User: Fold this.
Amino acid sequence: GAAGPGDVAGGPGRPDSVLVRAARGEPVPHTPVWFMRQAGRSLPEYREIRAGVPMLESCRRPELVTEITLQPVRRHGVDAAILFSDIVVPVAAAGVDLDIVPGTGPVVAEPIRTAADVERLRPIGLDDVTYVDEAIRMLVAELGDTPLIGFAGAPFTLASYLVEGGPSRTHARTKALMYGDPDTWHALCARLAGITGEFLRIQARAGVAAVQLFDSWAGALSEADYRRFVLPHSTAVLDGLADAGIPRIHFGVGTAELLPAMGEAGADVVGVDWRTPLDAATVRIGADKAVQGNLDPAVLFAPWPVIEAEVRRILAEGLAAPGHIFNLGHGVLPETDPEVLTRVVELVHAASAR
Ligand code: CP3
Assistant:
């Protein structure tokens, strides 16, 4: 058919959105596209509305969350919205004193490094994150036919921020805990899996159409260590969502060697960064799962003919998988020209129309 990006929707008696159908490997009128970090500093309207409001505070105001989430949908015509929040929001709700520092990222006042520290992480419930429930309900009403993606951080990536106390290039203290005190490591990850799992179930009950589990820094691990120290916990998170019946996207950066394991963790869609072509990724993951990706966000600074060739290459390679959701290989860089993003959306839709 000649369906456009907003023509189909979920709900009783109605077909699912293009994004959800691609995630399930069902036929779609065109390849759906959205961008990690599509809401954010690349948009002047975002910078304006965020002026003077700290990041964590903005995540706790449902009206503001709704407006920021809608901005890239209105501007770019993407096939999905992603909830404006941050991976550390549920951890803060669980009692960890932390802040999101502009230009740096999450900073934790008292890092978690011992069994006693792990005890400070309490489980969360709906009462701890009512603002997220409210924002999602408002968004689902506003978005109409456009699906809303919920998300959370995976246990490893969250553990890295908590153990290091902030962003880390080497994850040295995280690995020191993992190798030196495996019992405490597993206790920490089990608690994080509980928090993340509940946070995602709250989002599912509020009406998100799909979820993405961000294990951004898992690529720091070998496959053997990933399987031993991380996979069981991410599997617990994704298995805990099986009943929700919504697609689960599992994403990390630099994960070429981890793609099969990240699929096995219970994903319906595996997110791939720009280092691995999508056809090669599909060989690794297996042809029973969809893929998401994988334009290098830095390519958006290249001349348009280069961008166009890269988009067409990725669309062609994506045909190897049963379903393809077009995205970047990681988040939109703040200096990106938003008009280029809009043009990429138009190109993906036109070049993939079937
Ligand atoms: O549009 C979207 O993708 C939804 C919003 C979103 C944010 N953070 C908003 C945000 C999402 C999905 C995240 C997830 C997130 N947060 C991840 C996983 C994704 C990834 O990028 O790998 C990680 C590792 C974090 C931790 C974090 N929070 C970092 C590294 C930063 C950047 C720090 C900086 O200033 O450069 C943040 C802050 C943050 N989260 C911003 C936004 C829009 C920037 C804050 C601002 O605009 O002032």
Residues 18-352 form a domain with the TIM Barrel fold (CATH 3.20.20.210).
